């Protein structure tokens, strides 16, 4: 990424952002939009240096620290992503997971052909075109019969989370995370009810001095 011009791209991003905001001094929210990408937050201190200060010893040290931080976060994200994929899709268990398809994208020279095949598969899964002899078949990851998900708009009001199909929605509704949110809401409701009852009791027994 660095050899392909990552640092120059980040510097250009900072330049364009300054042009849009009209100032070099702004607070960035790294929890929204493109700013969540690994490789932006880690370079914040380096990008805040003046242009003529980036080629100094302090600037080069700042860049080196940013690269180390980016590598660390990339490896951490990759480990978390692999763990999530294994647990969510590939680990045989009693849960009914969505269909999983294997598409080898190692050779970037084949990217156009592979991306076209992925789009074709997505259209088949979504029911927008019929399955053909070239359509990928789902891989067998468990002893359960593969059931295709029903796509649509599913939403958990308690957790404020949207889902694209019924299987993901049903798994979420039975998850520990959802139950935890429900318990938290229940306790909050009970505390609010007790507080209101306590306030009503005080009003009932209050009286004016004569």
Q: Within the largest sheet, what's the order of strands?
A: 1-2
> What does the oligomeric state look like here?
single chain
Low-confidence stretches: none
Integer average pLDDT? 81
Rg result: 26 Å
User: Helix- and strand-based class?
Assistant: mainly alpha
Largest sheet: 2 strands, antiparallel
Strand content: 5-15%
Give the N-terminus to C-terminus distance in angstroms: 82 Å
Output the number of helix runs. Answer: 6
Percentage of helical residues? 40-55%
Silhouette: extended
Please provide the count of β strands: 2
Protein name: C2H2-type domain-containing protein
Domain C2H2-type: 156-178
Keywords: ATP-binding, Metal-binding, Nucleotide-binding, Transferase, Zinc, Zinc-finger
Family: Belongs to the IPP transferase family.
In short:
This is C2H2-type domain-containing protein. Helix content is 51%, strand content 5%. The protein has 210 residues and is mainly α.
């Amino acid at each position: 990424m660095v050899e392909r011009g990552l640092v120059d791209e980040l510097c250009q991003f900072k330049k364009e952002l300054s042009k849009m905001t009209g100032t070099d001094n702004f607070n960035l929210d790294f929890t929204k939009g493109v700013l969540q990408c690994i490789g932006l937050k880690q370079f914040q201190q380096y990008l805040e240096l003046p242009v003529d200060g980036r080629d100094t010893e302090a600037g080069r040290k700042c860049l080196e620290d940013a690269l180390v931080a980016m590598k660390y976060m990339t490896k951490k994200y990759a480990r978390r992503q692999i763990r999530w994929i294994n647990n969510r899709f590939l680990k045989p268990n009693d849960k009914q997971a969505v269909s999983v398809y294997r598409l080898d994208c190692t050779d970037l020279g084949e990217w156009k052909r592979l991306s076209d095949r992925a789009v074709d598969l997505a259209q088949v899964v979504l029911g927008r075109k019929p399955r053909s002899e070239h359509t990928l078949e789902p891989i067998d990851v468990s002893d359960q019969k593969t059931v295709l998900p029903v796509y649509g708009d599913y939403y958990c009001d308690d957790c404020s989370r949207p889902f694209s199909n019924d299987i993901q929605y049903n798994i979420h509704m039975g998850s520990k995370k959802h139950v935890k949110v429900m318990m938290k809401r229940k306790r909050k409701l009970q505390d609010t009810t007790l507080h209101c009852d306590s306030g009503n009791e005080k009003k009932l027994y209050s009286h004016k001095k004569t």
